[in-house]
C-alpha cells in the first residue's frame, strides 16, 4: 500500500513559472491516494488558474487570506500530514525563514501545525545568492525538508541549478517523508540487476534480471529512513529518489564497490543476479566466426561469491540474500542460507520474477519460513524492510 494512501497534504503554490508543474504534482498525489488541498498566492494565479487545481484535486482552492474561517489556520488543521510548498520562490523561502506572514501562503507556513517541505524553483543567480543559501540553511536547521533544486534548463534558457525537481520525484520524496522510519539512522547497501562478464569488446555473459526488485528494495529502505547505497549492474532503470547509486558491470567490480561502502553499514541486501562464472581471458578484439565449423571455446573461472564474502568478513552486518531458482525454491533457499551465512534468504522462481513487476517469494531464516504471496515488487520490498527492522529490534510494530 502506498505511504500516501489516506494522507492529507496541503499544497501551497507560489508565483513562479514552475507553477505549471504543480498541476501534474496534484494529479500524481491524488493518484497515489492522498487528499490534496491547494492554496495559492496571488502571483501564482497569474501562472495557473485556480480552476485547474480545483478540477485536479476535487476541492475548492484557497486564494484569499481574508476569506472566512481563518484559512491560514484551517489549511494545516490537525489531520494535515504535510504542508508542501511547490514551487517555492526565493521570496517565499525568505519570508518563511524570517517568520513573515503577509499573504495566504506565508501565513499558512507561519501558523502551520504539521511538517513543512519546500521545493525551490528560481533563477540560478537567485538560488546562488548568499541570502537565499542562508535562508535554506536556516529552514533545514528547523527540520524543514528542502527538496531540490535540480540542475537543468531554466526559463531563462540557462542550464544551471535552480530548476524545480520533477513532480514524480516530489511524490517519491513526500512518500519517504510520510513513511514510518523503521530504519532511521541505519546504513543499507543493496546490490541489484545482472552482472556482465565480457568475452570480448562486444560480447559477454549476462542474465535476464531487470533490477526492478533491487531498485524497489533500495527505495523502500530509503523511505524507511536509511542511508542507502545501491550498487547496480547494467539496467535501464531510473535511479531511485534519494538513493546513492554506484554503477558497475562485472561481479569483481560489484564486490569491490560493495566493499568500499560497507564501512559503518548495518545491513547488506544482495539482490543482484551475479554471474557465477567469467571467462579466464577477455579477447582484445571481437571474436569473429570462421568459414569452417570451428567454434570458439572459453575457459571459465568462478566469480567471487559476494554474499558469502560479506557475511564472512563483516559478521556484524545483517546480510540478506536472494535465491532465484527454477525449481524447489524453499529447499534451495534453505541450502543457500546455511552455506552463505546470511540472516535471511529470499527465495523465488526466476520465471516468476525476471522482467516482471510482481514477485512471489519465501523468506527463509534459521528459525522460520514465511511465504509471501504474489504481490508487486514494491510491496515485497516493504515487507522485507519491515522484516529486517523487526529482526534488528527497531520495528514500530
Molecular structure report:
The chain is an alpha/beta fold. The protein has helices spanning 21-31, 50-57, 71-74, 90-97, 104-110, 124-128, 130-141, 167-178, 212-223, 251-261, 306-313, 329-340, 350-353, 377-392, and strands at 8-13, 35-40, 82-88, 116-120, 145-146, 150-153, 159-163, 187-192, 197-198, 204-205, 227-232, 244-247, 267-270, 277-279, 300-302, 318-325, 344-349, 358-364, 369-376. Helix 1 (21-31) runs parallel beside helix 2, helix 1 (21-31) packs across helix 8 (167-178) and helix 4 packs across helix 7 (130-141). It is elongated. The model has no long low-confidence stretch (mean pLDDT 94).
Share of helix among residues? Answer: 25-40%
Strand order of the largest sheet: 12-11-8-13-16-17-18-19
Count of beta strands: 19
Overall geometric form: elongated
SS class: alpha/beta
Largest sheet, in brief, is: 8 strands, mixed
The poorly predicted ranges are: none
- CA distance, first residue to last residue: 16 Å
Radius of gyration over C-alpha positions, nearest whole angstrom:
25 Å
What is the arithmetic mean of pLDDT? 94
- Supply the number of helical segments: 14
The fraction of residues in strands falls at 15-25%
Task: Give the helix/strand layout.
Blueprint: E1 8-13, H1 21-31, E2 35-40, H2 50-57, H3 71-74, E3 82-88, H4 90-97, H5 104-110, E4 116-120, H6 124-128, H7 130-141, E5 145-146, E6 150-153, E7 159-163, H8 167-178, E8 187-192, E9 197-198, E10 204-205, H9 212-223, E11 227-232, E12 244-247, H10 251-261, E13 267-270, E14 277-279, E15 300-302, H11 306-313, E16 318-325, H12 329-340, E17 344-349, H13 350-353, E18 358-364, E19 369-376, H14 377-392
Helix pairs in contact: 1-2, 1-8, 4-7, 9-14
Amino acid at each position: 500500500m502506498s505511504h500516501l494512501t489516506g494522507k492529507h497534504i496541503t499544497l501551497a503554490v507560489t508565483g513562479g513559472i514552475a507553477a505549471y508543474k504543480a498541476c501534474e504534482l496534484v494529479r500524481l498525489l491524488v493518484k497515489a491516494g492522498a487528499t490534496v488541498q491547494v492554496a495559492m498566492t496571488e502571483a501564482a494565479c497569474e501562472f495557473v488558474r485556480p480552476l485547474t487545481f480545483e478540477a485536479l484535486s476535487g476541492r475548492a482552492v484557497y486564494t484569499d487570506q481574508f476569506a472566512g474561517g481563518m484559512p491560514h489556520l484551517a489549511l494545516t488543521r490537525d489531520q494535515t500530514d504535510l504542508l508542501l510548498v511547490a514551487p517555492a520562490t526565493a521570496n517565499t523561502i525568505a519570508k518563511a525563514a524570517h517568520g513573515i506572514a503577509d499573504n495566504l501562503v506565508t501565513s499558512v507556513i507561519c501558523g502551520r501545525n504539521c511538517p513543512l517541505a519546500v521545493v525551490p524553483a528560481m533563477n540560478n543567480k537567485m538560488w546562488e545568492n548568499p541570502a537565499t543559501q542562508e535562508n535554506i540553511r536556516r529552514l533545514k536547521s528547523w527540520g524543514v525538508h528542502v527538496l531540490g533544486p535540480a540542475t537543468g534548463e531554466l526559463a531563462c534558457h540557462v542550464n544551471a541549478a535552480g530548476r524545480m525537481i520533477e513532480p514524480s520525484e516530489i511524490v517519491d520524496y513526500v512518500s519517504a517523508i510520510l513513511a514510518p522510519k523503521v530504519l532511521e539512522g541505519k546504513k543499507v547497501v543493496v546490490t541489484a540487476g545482472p552482472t556482465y562478464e565480457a568475452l570480448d569488446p562486444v560480447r559477454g555473459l549476462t542474465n535476464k534480471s531487470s533490477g526492478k526488485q533491487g531498485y524497489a528494495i533500495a527505495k523502500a529502505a530509503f523511505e524507511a529512513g536509511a542511508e542507502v547505497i545501491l550498487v547496480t549492474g547494467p539496467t535501464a532503470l531510473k535511479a531511485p529518489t534519494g538513493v546513492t547509486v554506484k554503477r558497475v558491470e562485472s561481479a569483481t567490480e560489484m564486490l569491490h564497490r560493495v566493499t568500499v561502502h560497507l564501512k559503518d553499514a548495518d545491513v547488506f541486501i544482495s539482490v543482484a543476479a551475479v554471474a557465477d562464472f567469467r571467462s579466464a581471458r577477455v579477447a582484445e578484439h571481437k571474436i569473429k566466426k570462421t568459414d569452417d565449423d570451428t567454434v570458439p571455446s572459453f575457459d571459465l573461472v568462478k566469480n567471487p561469491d559476494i554474499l558469502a564474502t560479506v557475511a564472512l568478513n563483516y559478521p556484524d552486518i545483517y546480510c540478506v540474500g536472494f535465491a532465484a531458482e527454477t525449481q524447489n525454491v524453499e529447499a534451495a533457499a534453505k541450502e543457500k542460507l546455511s552455506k552463505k551465512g546470511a540472516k535471511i534468504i529470499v527465495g523465488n522462481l526466476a520465471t516468476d520474477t525476471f522482467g516482471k513487476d510482481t514477485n512471489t517469494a519465501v523468506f527463509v531464516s534459521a528459525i522460520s519460513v514465511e511465504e509471501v504471496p504474489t504481490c508487486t515488487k514494491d510491496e515485497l520490498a516493504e515487507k522485507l524492510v519491515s522484516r529486517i527492522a523487526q529482526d534488528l529490534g527497531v520495528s514500530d510494530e
